[in-house]
Amino acid sequence: MAVANARRLFVDANIWIAWGQGFAKAEATTLTELINHGLVKLVSTDLTLMEIAKRFRNNDIAALDPLIKADLKHAARQYLQLEIPGFDRDKLRVQIFNHHLQKVKLAMFSQFQAEVRSIDNVKPSHVLEQYTHGTGLFGPSGKKDQFPDAFIFAAVSGDVSAEKPLIVWSQDGDFAIACEESGHITRVTSMPQLLDALGIKREDDAIQELFDSQPELFLTALQEELMGYSIDADDVPDANVELLEVLDVISINVTSVYRAGEGEGKYIGFGKCEVRAQVEFNHPDWDSAIYDSEDKVLIPLHSVEGETELDLGPYSFTFLADIVDGQVAQIHECDMKERWGLRGSLLQDRGYF
């Protein structure tokens, strides 16, 4: 398909942020395929790129925060006789932001071939009029914090027409109102909805059954994905649980599969998975804790630690698959869609050891 006939697509910042630094998730890879085959033309804004870089910067600062606190410097000097150099926090934030902004720009231009528009071309009076009348991104509530999104939406939708329709991929409910008010704009909230909007048909049940009947094919890819996740214990307060290894894929339930490129080869799938994992844990020994009647709290005197197996899931996830001669050759780029991480029960009937 010629690029001139490609459907224009705007992807909201939160979608990019969910894909993580480097944009290497299955959905991002599929978007690249759609762009390379001329099915979509990505449209974005300079402010969107800044929002993505800002979130990545904030995540890095949160991870580095313990290293730049005065308490750590004092402890290092007292116990290790080490002098940790001082940090200019504001300068560090600026440098990390600039680093991420350059990486985001490079990905947008080289990998996603995006047309990046400047919000400087949006008339402030246009956005202020929407704010005054509670239309567009402001909706009935007219929240002031919608101003950045209002400028972004105006920048990407200003030239929309019957000949130049736009797809907006966003899970932000405020975008829904603005899209409904604007003609020739289709809003989607997920990759399956995007593929449907592009007229890309789902594969038949036979393809889905290839995956459901062979859960072991997902073991390596799920191991690579899950090693970076924290696990919250449902039944033990203040427990620290670290995943050591994915032992088994208990079940795979693929709900939809789409061809991600031309001809037989690469597919993107969506579904749910359940795994059994080996974990390491430690937590306060609540069984031997004493009760503080004054503060009305339990005070643990000891801790419990060890290893056990946990069943995790089912969780929503996406994946890429290579199919050759009607057989699954490889599963890769699994991407968990659980916003709040993984959860499991330490007290399930397997016991500690």
**Proportion of strand residues:** 25-35%
Main β-sheet description? 5 strands, parallel
Q: Please identify the structural class as seen in this structure.
A: alpha/beta
Strand order of the largest sheet: 3-2-1-4-5
Q: Taking Cα atoms only, what radius of gyration do you get, to the nearest Å?
A: 24 Å
| Helical amount | 25-40%
N→C terminal distance = 59 Å
Overall domain count: 2
Number of strands: 13
* Backbone shape: globular
Low-confidence stretches: none
Stated plainly, the CATH topology of the largest domain is called Rossmann fold
List the defining traits of the structure above.
353 residues, alpha/beta, Rossmann fold, 5-stranded parallel β-sheet, 11 helices
Structure description:
With 353 residues, the protein is an alpha/beta fold. The chain folds into 2 domains: 195 residues, Rossmann fold (3-Layer(aba) Sandwich), CATH 3.40.50; 140 residues, no CATH class. It contains 11 helices and 13 strands. A 5-stranded parallel beta sheet has the order 3-2-1-4-5, with helices on both faces. A hairpin with a 4-residue loop joins strand 9 and strand 10. Helix 1 crosses helix 3 and helix 3 packs across helix 5. The protein starts with 6 loop residues before the first strand and ends in a 9-residue tail after the last strand. The mean pLDDT is 87.
